[in-house]
Amino acid sequence: MQKQTKMILVMISVFMLLVFTGCSGGKSSESKSEGKAGGTITIGLAQDIVAVDPAFTYDFATGPVVNQITEGLLKFNEKGELEPNLAKDWENPDELTYIYRLRDDVKFSDGTPMTIDDVIFSLERIKDPKTASYVGWMFDNVDKIEKMDDWTVKMTLSKPDALFKYALATTAGHVISKAYYEEHKDNFGKPEGGIVGTGPFKFESWQTGSEIVLEKNENYWNKDGGPYLDKAVFKVIPEGTTRITGLKTGQLNIAVELPLDLIGKIEEMDNARLDTSDSYLIDGIEFNTQRKPFDDPKVRQAMNYALDKEKIIKQIIKDAGIPADGSTVPPVMWTFAKDKWEQAYKELPDYSYDIEKAKKLMAESSVPEGFKAKISTDGDTLRMNAALALQAAVKPLGIDLEIEKLTGEELMSRTFGGARDYDIAIQNWGSDFPDPSGNLHPLFHSDNTGDGGANYANYKNAEVDKLLAEQNKLTDDEKRTELMIQAQKIIAEDSPWITLSHQKQMMAMTNNVEGYHITPLWYWDGFLKDIKLK
After folding, report:
1. pLDDT tens, 95-106?
2. Dihedral of the alpha carbons of 49, 55, 60, 62, in degrees to the nearest 10
3. What's the confidence (pLDDT) of residue 23?
């Protein structure tokens, strides 16, 4: 054990040296208050990316990279409103029809023009079940994708879908070069194959486990503002302390997925700041409800009551978020029918700590004597501490939990894989859209238990499916709210999740970075476009 510890310490020291040797972000020698064009920015990621491919861009490491390279037909502004992007305008003449008129001046980073064939190919690829895209579920209700003329795409739905209007502002609506894809089918999106898109930056290289390098796209079509930077280097730095040290020394300019226990260190820095916003995030512990004994609601409820969530909020999350109190829909997402959401929130069971109630439920369950199981998570501060807290909390119930620590990439693969090969997973989710359904349908509709689906709890409830499907067919938000609240109540009582918190969105930046303010939907932003270094 002592030899292993020494070896680990040596490896960490070497890793830190490798990470920071050659980092070219750093502090600018410029002291002017206004940034200038040029330079290299260095961003610290908590884990390696999944792929340089919008079809598999669905986490807080892959997103910041790919969203600089490819773009959607639409985009979200800082208020969460839809705006034109690769489509210059669009219309929704009836509840089943969406028409997008494309810009005719867009070029890919290799200088070739974007055509309607590229657009339709990209959308069809996301829709194709064989792709197993992480965002493919957004096209579940798309029946046809058609060319109306050389610059107009028509998408016809099989049934009304209240959320579809947002899909083309996510990576589901991103466009890739058809020609490049067909030339690189075997290694597209991989380090040796790369990608060609229309975004403000272009793919240069990817050394797995180390760094991804992007360069300014000189052929970028949008002449309004940037890109100003010459290069962006994304460093894969799993150790949170190392990322924070990089900010302090100026060898990193930006860091994301910040360890909650180190937020105070950033706030103390003279050369860096913490940029925050409200979020659509939900942190939680998910039971595999199709695996015994977690198919028993009383087991799930007992474990929920046994865990002191308030202590986790006070000791770990602090001011970086708010309690979830049994709901996966945070108050910032009550964008319509706010009074109804607020009342429903008060009526939900919040599973406040009650060990006696937990013991009673276990005694009534299918496993009154307890059992052994495994918790799968990664090294994130909140998730690992939640795993440790749950492990200790359920011992009085006769439950022996083993913690399985995965890498961030492994956790993503496991929790988005249709096999659902875990007993309990600790994972988070951020709604893709400014709509409460974005935190209900993906997480709890049984359609999302397959490959690429975000139903981490493997939860299947016919009544919930019916309510979520029905609300998604409506355009009346008041009626939608009533149905979603009914579903939310059933879900809370079934307890497929132990809901922990709604964390803030956070991005740490050195003071020489300007031009961007984080938003609730920042994970769809080409946020480097307007950034300058002072």
Report:
1. 999 999 999 999
2. 30
3. 42
| Cα distances (angstroms) measured from residue 502 to each of 279, 323, 331, 373 | 7, 6, 9, 27
425 SS3 class: strand
The model's pLDDT over 44-74, given as tens digits with 9 standing for 90+, comes to 999 999 999 999 998 889 999 999 999 999 9
Give me the pLDDT at residue 34, please: 64
E strand or H helix at 283 = strand 281-287
pLDDT, one tens digit per residue, over 410-448 is 998 899 889 999 999 999 998 999 999 999 999 999 999
Q: Measured between alpha carbons, how far is 255 from 243 in angstroms, rounded to an integer?
A: 7
Rounded to an integer, what distance in angstroms lies between the CA atom of residue 163 and that of residue 356?
42
Q: Across residues 363-375, what is the average pLDDT?
A: 98
CA angle in degrees (0–180, nearest 5) for 215-220-223:
125
Burial class (CB within 10 angstroms; exposed 0-12, middle 13-18, buried 19+) of 223: exposed
| Beta carbons of 196 and 109 less than 8 angstroms apart | yes
C-alpha gyration radius of the chain = 23
Phi-psi region of 376 (alpha: psi -120 to 50; beta: other; left: phi over 0): beta
Please calculate the CA angle 201-60-379 and round it to the nearest 5 degrees. Answer: 135
pLDDT at 209 over 90: yes
Residues 150-174: tens digit of each pLDDT: 999 999 999 999 999 999 999 999 9
Which residues face 213 on adjacent strands?
205, 233
Residue 335 CB partners (closer than 8 Å, separation 6+):
80, 434, 435, 436
Q: Which residue bears the tokens 């705006």?
A: 83
State the chain's maximal CA–CA distance in angstroms.
Answer: 70
Q: To 10 degrees, what angle do helices 240-249 and 2-20 make?
A: 40
Chain centroid to CA 19: 25
d(CA 20, CA 13): 11
Quote the pTM value: 0.81
Angle at which helices 338-347 and 477-494 cross, to 10°: 10
